[in-house]
C-alpha cells in the first residue's frame, strides 16, 4: 500500500461518522490476560457499510489480498476467503486501512503485540450503545500479510471463537460461528461476509500451500501441520520409514530431481540433497511466498512482491531475476518454467534468465502444473482443465468439464485432477477422455511424480500408490498433515 493510500485511509477514518466507512467491523485488541479474556471491541457495523464508490476497486483488492491471506490460514487456520471478505467489509476494500491495518486492531493494554511494528493514534467511531468519535491507538503493520496474520492470531487465541475452528473446512459456517461469538453487533454481519465470498469467488483462495510433494526419484515429503509445520520424508510406499527432516515452522514443501526445498513461515527458503534431519542450507532472505523445483534441479522462488528468481545448485547465492513484480504462482519441471501472473495469464520458457517468456493463455487461468516430459496443465477460473506439450499460445486441448479444483502433472505423462467434490481422477496422455476415477470424495490435495501418486485426505492422512486405478492405495501416515 502506498503512503498516499495510507494517508487517504486516515482521512477516511476521520470521516467515519459521516461516511460510515470504517465502522464496518470491530476495532479490537488482543486480550491482555489469558486467551479467554474479553476482547476490547469498538464495533459499529451498519447496514450498507461498504462505500459504493470503492466497490469498483474490490477485484483489484482481492487479487492482492487473496494470496496475502493464505499464510495466515496456514499458520492459524482462518479460511483465507473469510479473512479477505472481512477485510473488504471492514476496510472498504483497503480504502480505510492506515498503517496496513485492515481490521482496526487496537494496540490497547497489550501494545503492538508480536506481529505489528508499532502504534498510531487515529479517530474512530465507538458505539456503547450510542455512537461517538474517539481517538484510539491502532496497530501498524509492515504489510497486508502481517495484518492478516494478526487477525488470525486474534481469532485463534480467543476461546470465545474456538467453536469456529471446528469449521475451518466450511468457511460459511466458520464466519457464522465468529459472528455468533460476538465479533460484530450487526445481526447481518455473517450474511454480508458470506455474500462477499460468493460474489468475488473468494473460496478459491482457501487451498493451503501443498502439504505433500513427490519427486522424480520417488522421494515423498509430508508437511505435518498438526505438528506445527514439521517435515517428514522417505522413499518407497508404505506406512513406515518416515524420517523427521525439520523442526516446526515450515509452510510449504517441494521435492524433485533429488532436491528438497522448504519454505519457512517467515518466508526463508532452505534446500538440501538427501533425506535426513541435517544438511539444510539457507537459500534466501525471509522474503519468499512460493517455491518450486524441477526434475533437472532448477529451483524457482516467488517473492512477496511478485518477482520470480531461479537457479540451479544449493546455496544462498546464484539467483537470477526472471520477471518483474507481476507473478502469483510458479511451476517448473523438465526444464520448462511456467508463471501465472496476477491477471490470470500464463507465460512459459526454457532455461534460466530474464528474457524468453512466451504468452501461453488469455487472462483466465487459476492454477498451473508442468510434468518432466513437458506436459503443461492449466486450470481456468471456471474449473476446466486444458493441457498441451510445447511452449506457445496455441495447441491447448480441453481435458475436463468445469468441475476441477486442483491439478498435478507427473514425470511420465501422468495427469491427476481433484474435482470440487474431493474425488481424484487420473490418466496418461492429452485429451478429453480416458480419465479413471481413483478415489471417493474425500481428498484435499494431490501430487504425482516418478510414477507415484500421493493424496492427502480430509482427515490429514496421506495415501500413495503406483499406477492408475481405484484400488491399490496404501495408507502412508496417521492423520498428521
Topology:
Blueprint: H1 3-14, H2 16-19, E1 26-29, E2 40-43, H3 58-76, H4 80-91, E3 118-127, E4 131-140, H5 144-157, H6 171-180, H7 189-199, E5 212-214, E6 219-224, E7 230-235, E8 243-244, E9 250-256, E10 259-264, E11 269-273, E12 281-282, E13 288-293, E14 298-303, E15 308-312, E16 320-321, E17 327-333, E18 336-341, E19 346-350, E20 358-359, E21 365-370, E22 375-380, E23 385-389, E24 397-398, E25 404-409, E26 414-419, E27 424-428, E28 436-437, E29 443-449, E30 452-457, E31 462-466, E32 474-475
Antiparallel strand pairs: 1-2, 3-4, 5-6, 6-7, 7-8, 9-10, 10-11, 11-12, 13-14, 14-15, 15-16, 17-18, 18-19, 19-20, 21-22, 22-23, 23-24, 25-26, 26-27, 27-28, 29-30, 30-31, 31-32
Helix pairs in contact: 3-4, 3-5, 4-7, 6-7
Explain what this protein looks like in three dimensions.
By secondary structure, this protein is of the alpha+beta class. 17% of the residues lie in helices and 34% in strands. It has a four-stranded antiparallel beta sheet, with no helix packed on it. A four-stranded antiparallel beta sheet has the order 9-10-11-12. Helix 3 packs across helix 4 (80-91) and helix 4 packs across helix 7 (189-199). The longest helix has 19 residues, at 58-76. It is globular and about 65 Å long.
